[in-house]
Design a protein that fits this description.
Length: about 140
C-alpha cells in the first residue's frame, strides 16, 4: 500500500491536470478539419544526357493538389513542393513521361492527391555544337 501512496497517488491533482491538458490538446488537434489546396509547382528536369536537348513546347509547371490539416496548408507555399523528372533514360524522339503523386516531394503532414497533367510529351533532339564565330 505504501507503493501506491508514494508513486501513484502522490501529486494526484497535478497528474489529473496534466492528463486534462493533454486531452484538450489532442481534442483540439484532431478536431481541425482536413482540406485540399492546389499549388502551381515548376517542373525540374534532371540528368539529361549531354548529347540530347529538349525541343519544342514543354510544360514548365504542373498543378498539384495537396491534402492536409487546414492550418498547415495555409502556411504552405509552392516552394515547399518539388517535382523532379529524371531524364537519364531519354532517347532521341518524342517521349511520354507519366507523373504520379509519389514523384512529388512534399513536407510531412501533406499528402499529394493529384498531379495535373499526369502525362507530358517531350521531344528530344541531338545537341548541336554552336557554330564557331566568323573570322
Amino acid at each position: 500500500m505504501g507503493f501506491l501512496r508514494k508513486y501513484v497517488f502522490a501529486n494526484a491533482v497535478l497528474k489529473i491536470l496534466a492528463l486534462a491538458i493533454s486531452f484538450l490538446l489532442w481534442a483540439t488537434y484532431t478536431s481541425e478539419p482536413f482540406s485540399e489546396v492546389v499549388f502551381q509547382v515548376p517542373l525540374e528536369f534532371t540528368t539529361l544526357p549531354i548529347q540530347l536537348e529538349i525541343s519544342g513546347d514543354v510544360p514548365t509547371s504542373t498543378r498539384i493538389r495537396v491534402r492536409g490539416r487546414s492550418a498547415f496548408l495555409r502556411r504552405m507555399i509552392s516552394a515547399d513542393l518539388n517535382l523532379r523528372l529524371d531524364l537519364k533514360d531519354a532517347r532521341e524522339g518524342t517521349t511520354a513521361l507519366r507523373i504520379t503523386p509519389e514523384m512529388v516531394g512534399a513536407p510531412f503532414g501533406a499528402t499529394v492527391v493529384q498531379v495535373s497533367p499526369s502525362e507530358i510529351h517531350i521531344t528530344f533532339v541531338p545537341r548541336h555544337e554552336p557554330a564557331p564565330p566568323p573570322a
